Amino acid sequence: xxxxxxxxxxxxxxxxxxxxxxxxxxxxxxxxxxxxxxxxxxxxxxxxxxxxxxxxxxxxxxxxxxxxxxxxxxxxxxxxxxxxxxxxxxxxxxxxxxxxxxxxxxxxxxxxxxxxxxxxxxxxxxxxxxxxxxxxxxxxxxxxxxxxxxxxxxxxxxxxxxxxxxxxxxxxxxxxxxx
Length: 179
Ligand code: FES
Hints:
Layout: E1 18-19, E2 42-46, H1 62-68, E3 79-84, E4 93-98, E5 101-107, E6 113-117, E7 128-132, E8 135-139, E9 146-147, E10 154-155, E11 165-166, E12 168-171, E13 174-178
Parallel strand pairs: 1-2
Antiparallel strand pairs: 2-4, 3-13, 4-5, 5-6, 6-11, 7-8, 8-9, 9-10, 12-13
The protein binds FE2/S2 (inorganic) cluster.
């Protein structure tokens, strides 16, 4: 099933991630904690039709470079609200910022969601939901790597490693990510 979401339809609140580009002062490189002032930050929700999010091409911090070489599975932490389930229909993708970290979500089904780091495994730029030949993808703006939205596995472009996956779940009316 495909669906389209207008990322401009959301508004920012203190407790609900919203759809937009980067927060003020955040670099383009994965949102690795350059700003930790908000528990939940802004994000972008993208359906299969796709709307390009705002991404920059600025340089990356050492933290982000380290994350770019991180294991394929995030070691874990605490389940954290990421996005209201109603804001991400089955088949849709979203970019959300939680605790200063930008994550990519893919709603597999009513009961399952996948979450990945937005840090490109090539050189650490910020990957965002997009479209590739009419199909949803997670795309890197720097050198053209694409990642499968369901697995985080790269295809095309120079990236060789999958995006780091985070444990994610649908908990009632909220999508949760363990960070
Ligand atoms: S940093 Fe993403 S493709 Fe190079």
